[in-house]
Prior knowledge:
Blueprint: H1 2-12, H2 14-34, H3 54-58, H4 68-79, H5 81-90
Amino acid sequence: MHMRAMIGVFRRHLWAFLAIVVLVPACALIAIQRVTPRYTAVGSLIYEPSEYRGRELESILRTDPTTEAVMASQAEVLQSLKVSQRVADRGNLYANPEFNATLRPRRCV
C-alpha cells in the first residue's frame, strides 16, 4: 500500500515536476543567449624571415624540417618579452581596459 501511495503522489504532482524540468533549463538557455560574451580574441602573427630561400619555396616535395628542437626554439621565441612587447604595441593593448587594469573604472564596494 505504501508504494501505491507514492505512485499516487507522483501522478498528482507530475505536471509540476515536468514544468520544473522543462522551465528551469529553458530559462537558463534564454539567460545564456542574452548575455554578451565577456571575452573575445583576435590574433596577430608577426613573422620576420631571417633569410630568403628560393629553392625551398620552389620545391614542393621537400621534407618538413620541423623537429622537436625547432619547435622548442620557436616556443622560446614566442615567450620572449620582446615579442610580447611588440604584440602589445601593435595591438594597442595598453589603450584597452580589458588588458590595462589602470584604465578600468573603479568599483565602489
